[in-house]
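> call design_seq(struct)
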């Protein structure tokens, strides 16, 4: 037995259980930690380096140097930058995002009251994108080259070029003015009136979902067309398996991974787009809170809103990574 043969089992163990496998599994978490540190540092730095000052903002032009120094000490703004950042980040990790300079209301409380609007719109938008984009993509792949396929391709190309706020205005004109089916704006919590809640978020969610649905349909159509030509699909058909089972259990499972990845790339856009959509439909969400805080230079509220948005994007990306890994493992 040669030395290489004696080492072969060891090499096999390294391939199965070695550091590469552990590193590969830990990379998403490590990346998330690095993104959190970098993004929070930039977020806090932008607020600290700005010219906004709580004393000048709250007390106005009549503030004396002694008043400014006293208030800066109360907010900890007279400490070194890195010490301020470490304190802010440590408090943020425990849910304490500070208090508004103007209202003295805890930032976490203000965000909790507003973020349900954004989560409602974004969640329904993702659901619409999956249902509409998935149905269109599967139908186009099954009828590749036909009229339905060409129609889906044309509609998706058009939908991807229209901004969400333009779609929102068009939906208001069509379904709130011309044919008054849905309200044109406002918000009611789910626990207060579930039916009215759904009616109020439907149009914003549709406006927000079109771009994601179009990209999802195109990616799913492309992946399915390729998967349906693979040998394992042909073999399943030859063995007499039902066409629906071949499509859903074999071809779709392999084509869904890239489509889910595309959907994951759209989630940050959906969260950001919800801010613009709020303005069109007069929704009291996180975007409105951030805009009001920016106009007043209420730095703690702006920093807290940005931090929560970053956290939502990271969590959604981790969920997408887990879903893609599960799809790959199920092949």
């Amino acid at each position: 037995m040669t030395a290489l043969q004696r080492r072969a089992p060891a090499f096999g163990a390294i391939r199965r259980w070695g550091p590469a496998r552990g590193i590969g599994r830990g990379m998403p978490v490590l990346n998330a930690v690095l993104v959190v540190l970098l993004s929070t540092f930039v977020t806090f730095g932008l607020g600290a380096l700005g010219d906004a000052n709580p004393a000048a903002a709250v007390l106005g032009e009549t503030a004396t140097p002694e008043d400014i120094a006293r208030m800066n000490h109360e907010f900890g703004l007279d400490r070194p930058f890195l010490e301020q950042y470490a304190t802010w980040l440590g408090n943020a990790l425990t849910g304490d995002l500070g208090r508004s300079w103007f209202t003295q209301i805890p930032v976490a409380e203000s965000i909790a009251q507003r973020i349900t609007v954004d989560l409602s719109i974004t969640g329904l938008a993702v659901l619409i994108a999956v249902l509409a984009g998935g149905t269109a993509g599967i139908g186009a792949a099954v009828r590749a080259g036909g009229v339905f396929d060409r129609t889906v391709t044309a509609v998706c190309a058009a939908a991807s070029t229209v901004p969400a706020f333009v779609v929102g205005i068009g939906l208001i004109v069509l379904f709130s003015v011309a044919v008054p089916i849905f309200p044109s704006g406002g918000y009611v919590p789910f626990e207060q009136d579930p039916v009215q809640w759904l009616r109020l978020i439907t149009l914003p969610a549709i406006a927000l979902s079109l771009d994601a649905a179009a990209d999802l349909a195109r990616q799913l159509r492309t992946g399915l067309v390729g998967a349906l030509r693979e040998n394992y699909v042909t073999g399943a058909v030859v063995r007499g398996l039902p066409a629906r089972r071949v499509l859903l259990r074999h071809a779709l499972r392999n084509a869904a991974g890239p489509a889910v990845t595309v959907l994951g790339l759209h989630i940050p856009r959906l969260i950001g787009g919800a801010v613009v959509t709020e303005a069109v439909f007069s929704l009291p969400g996180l975007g409105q809170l951030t805009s009001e805080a920016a106009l007043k230079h209420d730095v703690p509220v702006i920093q807290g809103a940005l931090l929560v948005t970053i956290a939502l994007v990271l969590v959604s990306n981790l969920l997408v990574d887990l879903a893609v890994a599960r799809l790959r493992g199920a092949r």
